[in-house]
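Protein in question reproduced for absentees:

***
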Amino acid sequence: YERFASTVRPGGTILVDSSVPLEVKAPEGVTVFQIPAIDLSAKMGSQKSANTVMLAALAQLGVTGLRQECMQEALDSSFRRKPELVETNRKLFHAAQSWMGENQLNADSKA
């Protein structure tokens, strides 16, 4: 977080795992979302899938400009060599989106 936060322009968004202490204040006009990516992926039995949680958060926040269906297709495609992980990551993607909704973190949450 500290290494890259200063490079984010006003109006930008930073996602950081909630286990990371935020010792540096975000730049003015930058929105920071703390997501329990490592914890959620561990609870789903896939500790190495924290990136899937962050991808779901990006989709839920609408910051990419991509439709969620396209993001889901890209996620599936990224596991084409490990098809046994497709379903796990799909479930994790949806669980992360549910967490975002339950915690009222969505595109309307941005300042």
Q: What stands out?
A: The mean pLDDT is 88.
